[in-house]
Specification:
This protein has 10 helices and 12 strands. The chain has 340 residues and is of the alpha+beta class. The strands form 3 sheets. Strands 5-4-7-2-11 form a 5-stranded antiparallel β-sheet. Strands 8, 9, 10 and 12 form a 4-stranded antiparallel β-sheet that branches. The longest helix has 25 residues.
Length: 340
């Protein structure tokens, strides 16, 4: 080994971190157990902090700037090693760089639905998603309670660790807010402000600052969304008879598309009764028109019987298609047979 190669491998003269990966939060300077030359150059760039450890114990911390590693610039390390002012020999210690910039657009979401008491729907399950920003606030606390002696920590690791923390904190804030699910969209900022201090209490122990917490979306169960859509449609329709006819037509279309019974999907409670009543009322109107134009009572009676039987047949077809339940069919069947 040449003398020049010996000095290159044995002594470190320049210590710096040129960030190649924007997702790195902590990076250990790769000294390969080499000694740092006395008077070596240390460069700490903006949005960085450098921390020296001596035999696992915290020594000097350096903010952005350029330093010559002399005893006057390393008071803690000088004290730990019992150096006198004339010390000029190489020394061995670990150098860690921390990124103090704000890491943005991190994702969070509730894995399982949150059961919520709601003034409109009584009890409902909701899911939520959003983003948050964080930064390293205290490098020593971050090193002690999270990273340890790892050579590198990526933001993705932090993001994964925080998923199980954020979800229950959001549920806690959501319960305290007592906001109806119908009003949540206009309350996103308010919910974010409520979650932030609750979550920050957990992040303090890791030396992390929560810069921003944002709720982006709150989703409801499918059945609640369908009910809400139906309420909206009802509010938009002035003539309830026309609205009922519209709902009946939709139900019959679905029944025709799926004769095996799938047509019952999306039909609300009592819709089957509404359809049967509309059919019977229509037949009654037809009967009245027929009676007014036909003076033969026996003929009217036969015609009325025929229409009742036809209505029963139609109700049977609706039952087969799944539009009417067995109970609804039997109720209307008894009512029609009593008219014979």
């Amino acid at each position: 080994m040449s003398l020049m190669r010996f000095f290159v491998e044995e002594f470190v003269e320049i210590i710096e971190w040129k960030e190649q990966d924007k997702n790195t939060m902590l990076w250990k300077f790769p000294d390969r157990d080499s000694n740092i030359k006395y008077g070596a150059s240390l460069t700490v760039r903006e949005s960085q902090t450098a921390l020296f450890l001596n035999e696992g114990e915290f020594a000097d911390e350096f903010e952005p700037g350029r330093y010559e590693l002399l005893t006057e610039n390393m008071p803690l390390l000088t004290s730990l090693k019992n150096w006198d002012k004339g010390f000029k020999s190489p020394f061995l210690c670990d150098a860690y760089f921390f990124s103090t910039k704000t890491f943005t657009d991190l994702k969070w979401g509730t894995v399982n639905p949150i059961i919520l008491r709601d003034p409109e729907f009584k009890q409902v399950r909701v899911k939520a998603h959003g983003t948050y920003f964080i930064k390293i606030k205290d490098p020593k606390v971050f090193f002690t309670n999270y990273s340890g002696t790892k050579g590198q920590v990526k933001i993705g690791e932090i993001e994964a660790s925080l998923r199980d923390i954020i979800s229950p904190k959001f549920a806690e804030a959501l319960a305290e807010a007592e906001v109806s699910v119908l009003d949540m969209v206009k309350s996103y900022s308010e919910l974010g402000e409520k979650v932030a201090p609750i979550l920050q209490a957990d992040l303090d122990q890791f030396g992390i600052e929560l810069v921003k917490f944002q709720v982006s979306s709150v989703s409801l169960p499918k059945e609640v969304e369908e009910f809400y859509d139906k309420m909206t449609n009802m509010n938009m329709v002035d003539d309830m008879n026309r609205f009922q006819q519209f709902q009946t037509a939709q139900a019959m279309e679905k029944a025709a598309e799926n004769p095996s019974g799938g047509g019952s999907e999306g039909i609300g409670m009592g819709m089957g009764f509404g359809m049967a009543n509309m059919m019977m009322n229509q037949n009654q109107n037809n009967n009245q028109n027929t009676n007014s134009s036909n003076a033969d009572n026996s003929s009217n009676k036969a015609q009325t019987r025929e229409e009742i039987m036809d209505t029963l047949k139609q109700l049977g077809e609706l039952k087969t298609a799944g539009v009417l339940s067995d109970e609804e069919f039997e109720t209307k069947k008894k009512e029609l047979l009593a008219r014979l």
